[in-house]
Design brief:
Strand order of the largest sheet: 1-2-3-4
Number of strands: 4
Strand content: 25-35%
Helix content: 25-40%
Largest sheet: 4 strands, antiparallel
Number of helices: 2
Structural class: alpha+beta
Distance between the termini: 80 Å
Radius of gyration: 21 Å
Order of helices and strands: HHEEEE
Protein backbone atom coordinates (compact mmCIF):
# COMPACT_ATOMS: atom_id res chain seq x y z
CA UNK A 1 0.00 0.00 0.00
CA UNK A 2 2.81 2.44 0.81
CA UNK A 3 4.29 1.88 -2.65
CA UNK A 4 1.09 3.17 -4.23
CA UNK A 5 1.24 6.52 -2.44
CA UNK A 6 4.23 7.89 -4.43
CA UNK A 7 2.65 6.67 -7.67
CA UNK A 8 -0.55 8.56 -6.83
CA UNK A 9 1.26 11.71 -5.70
CA UNK A 10 3.47 12.04 -8.78
CA UNK A 11 0.67 13.19 -11.16
CA UNK A 12 -0.68 15.62 -8.56
CA UNK A 13 2.75 17.18 -8.03
CA UNK A 14 3.33 17.38 -11.78
CA UNK A 15 0.02 19.17 -12.41
CA UNK A 16 0.63 21.56 -9.52
CA UNK A 17 4.10 22.43 -10.82
CA UNK A 18 2.78 23.01 -14.34
CA UNK A 19 0.00 25.28 -13.09
CA UNK A 20 2.38 27.42 -11.06
CA UNK A 21 4.84 27.80 -13.94
CA UNK A 22 2.28 30.02 -15.70
CA UNK A 23 2.20 32.40 -12.77
CA UNK A 24 5.17 34.50 -13.79
CA UNK A 25 5.44 38.18 -14.63
CA UNK A 26 7.49 37.33 -17.73
CA UNK A 27 4.80 35.06 -19.18
CA UNK A 28 2.11 37.67 -18.54
CA UNK A 29 4.21 40.41 -20.18
CA UNK A 30 4.90 38.18 -23.18
CA UNK A 31 1.17 37.55 -23.61
CA UNK A 32 0.48 41.30 -23.45
CA UNK A 33 3.22 42.06 -26.01
CA UNK A 34 1.87 39.34 -28.32
CA UNK A 35 -1.63 40.76 -27.96
CA UNK A 36 -0.38 44.26 -28.81
CA UNK A 37 1.57 43.00 -31.82
CA UNK A 38 -1.42 41.05 -33.15
CA UNK A 39 -4.28 43.46 -32.39
CA UNK A 40 -3.14 47.06 -31.91
CA UNK A 41 -1.08 48.19 -34.88
CA UNK A 42 1.22 49.96 -32.39
CA UNK A 43 4.91 50.14 -33.28
CA UNK A 44 6.35 48.32 -30.28
CA UNK A 45 9.89 49.26 -31.40
CA UNK A 46 9.09 52.90 -30.52
CA UNK A 47 7.78 52.14 -27.01
CA UNK A 48 9.06 51.00 -23.65
CA UNK A 49 6.44 48.59 -22.37
CA UNK A 50 6.88 47.69 -18.70
CA UNK A 51 4.67 45.43 -16.64
CA UNK A 52 4.77 47.25 -13.31
CA UNK A 53 2.65 44.82 -11.28
CA UNK A 54 0.99 41.43 -11.64
CA UNK A 55 -1.33 39.50 -9.36
CA UNK A 56 -2.83 36.05 -9.85
CA UNK A 57 -6.18 34.58 -8.79
CA UNK A 58 -6.74 30.96 -9.88
CA UNK A 59 -6.76 31.04 -13.70
CA UNK A 60 -6.78 34.86 -13.92
CA UNK A 61 -3.93 37.38 -13.96
CA UNK A 62 -4.22 41.13 -13.42
CA UNK A 63 -1.41 43.34 -14.71
CA UNK A 64 -0.66 47.05 -14.77
CA UNK A 65 1.45 48.08 -17.75
CA UNK A 66 3.25 51.40 -18.31
CA UNK A 67 3.89 52.69 -21.84
CA UNK A 68 6.51 55.38 -22.63
CA UNK A 69 8.07 56.54 -25.86
CA UNK A 70 11.61 55.08 -25.93
CA UNK A 71 14.01 57.42 -24.18
CA UNK A 72 11.26 59.44 -22.44
CA UNK A 73 10.29 58.22 -18.98
CA UNK A 74 8.61 61.41 -17.76
CA UNK A 75 5.23 61.03 -16.11
CA UNK A 76 3.72 63.39 -18.67
CA UNK A 77 4.40 60.88 -21.44
CA UNK A 78 3.33 57.79 -19.49
CA UNK A 79 0.18 55.84 -20.20
CA UNK A 80 -0.97 53.13 -17.78
CA UNK A 81 -3.31 50.32 -18.77
CA UNK A 82 -4.74 47.51 -16.69
CA UNK A 83 -4.92 44.10 -18.33
CA UNK A 84 -7.01 41.12 -17.29
CA UNK A 85 -5.74 37.80 -18.65
CA UNK A 86 -7.12 34.27 -18.47
CA UNK A 87 -5.19 31.02 -18.66
CA UNK A 88 -6.21 29.15 -21.82
CA UNK A 89 -4.52 26.01 -23.15
CA UNK A 90 -1.37 26.60 -21.13
CA UNK A 91 -1.00 30.26 -22.19
CA UNK A 92 -2.25 33.64 -21.01
CA UNK A 93 -4.88 35.36 -23.15
CA UNK A 94 -5.87 39.03 -22.78
CA UNK A 95 -9.61 39.27 -22.05
CA UNK A 96 -9.94 42.91 -20.96
CA UNK A 97 -7.99 46.18 -21.19
CA UNK A 98 -8.87 49.38 -19.38
CA UNK A 99 -7.26 52.68 -18.43
CA UNK A 100 -5.67 52.79 -15.00
CA UNK A 101 -7.19 55.27 -12.52
CA UNK A 102 -6.12 58.82 -13.34
CA UNK A 103 -5.56 57.91 -17.00
CA UNK A 104 -7.79 58.29 -20.02
CA UNK A 105 -10.15 60.79 -21.55
CA UNK A 106 -10.99 62.70 -18.37
CA UNK A 107 -7.54 64.33 -18.45
CA UNK A 108 -4.61 64.11 -16.09
CA UNK A 109 -4.99 63.14 -12.45
CA UNK A 110 -4.74 65.89 -9.84
CA UNK A 111 -1.27 67.40 -9.79
CA UNK A 112 -0.18 65.94 -13.16
CA UNK A 113 0.93 68.24 -15.98
CA UNK A 114 -0.16 67.98 -19.60
CA UNK A 115 2.58 67.43 -22.20
CA UNK A 116 4.13 70.66 -23.57
CA UNK A 117 1.95 72.20 -26.28
CA UNK A 118 -1.18 70.22 -25.28
CA UNK A 119 -4.35 72.34 -25.38
CA UNK A 120 -6.06 72.94 -22.01
CA UNK A 121 -8.62 70.37 -20.90
CA UNK A 122 -11.74 71.30 -19.00
CA UNK A 123 -13.21 68.04 -17.62
CA UNK A 124 -16.59 69.72 -17.19
CA UNK A 125 -16.81 70.52 -20.92
CA UNK A 126 -18.79 68.06 -23.08
CA UNK A 127 -16.77 66.78 -26.02
CA UNK A 128 -16.79 69.43 -28.73
CA UNK A 129 -19.02 71.75 -26.71
CA UNK A 130 -18.92 74.73 -24.39
CA UNK A 131 -18.82 74.53 -20.56
CA UNK A 132 -22.26 74.03 -19.09
Amino acid sequence: MLRCVPALLAPVLFLTACGNSMQSKDKVQQAILSHLADHSGIDLNALEVTTTSVSFDHNMAYATVAFHPKGDTSLASEMLLKYTLQARNGRWAVVKVEHAPGQGTAGPAAGEQLPPGHPPINPMTPQGGQPQ
